[in-house]
């Protein structure tokens, strides 16, 4: 295996990982900022107020973006298996 092929596989893997995790991370960031803004406005510093809505939003986002995540990881797996079958690895 040439180093260029290994770097290409690593690059594709990192890209697929970032694309797969982007929706969940974006929702967690937005919900966290909204909760922090709400806490700053109302001066309510309750710890459960921080975690429960964020966890609920993350679960809903995972459920909704699961087909996208599955498709992205399936494309990566198909590319890697094609390289293995063709002798590129």
UniProtKB/TrEMBL annotation:
<keyword id="KW-0812">Transmembrane</keyword>
<keyword id="KW-1133">Transmembrane helix</keyword>
<dbReference type="Pfam" id="PF01313">
    <property type="entry name" value="Bac_export_3"/>
</dbReference>
<keyword id="KW-0966">Cell projection</keyword>
<comment type="function">
    <text>Role in flagellar biosynthesis.</text>
</comment>
<keyword id="KW-0969">Cilium</keyword>
<dbReference type="InterPro" id="IPR006305">
    <property type="entry name" value="FliQ"/>
</dbReference>
<dbReference type="InterPro" id="IPR002191">
    <property type="entry name" value="Bac_export_3"/>
</dbReference>
<keyword id="KW-0282">Flagellum</keyword>
<feature type="transmembrane region" description="Helical">
    <location>
        <begin position="20"/>
        <end position="39"/>
    </location>
</feature>
<keyword id="KW-0975">Bacterial flagellum</keyword>
<keyword id="KW-0472">Membrane</keyword>
<comment type="similarity">
    <text>Belongs to the FliQ/MopD/SpaQ family.</text>
</comment>
<keyword id="KW-1003">Cell membrane</keyword>
<feature type="transmembrane region" description="Helical">
    <location>
        <begin position="51"/>
        <end position="70"/>
    </location>
</feature>
<protein>
    <recommendedName>
        <fullName>Flagellar biosynthetic protein FliQ</fullName>
    </recommendedName>
</protein>
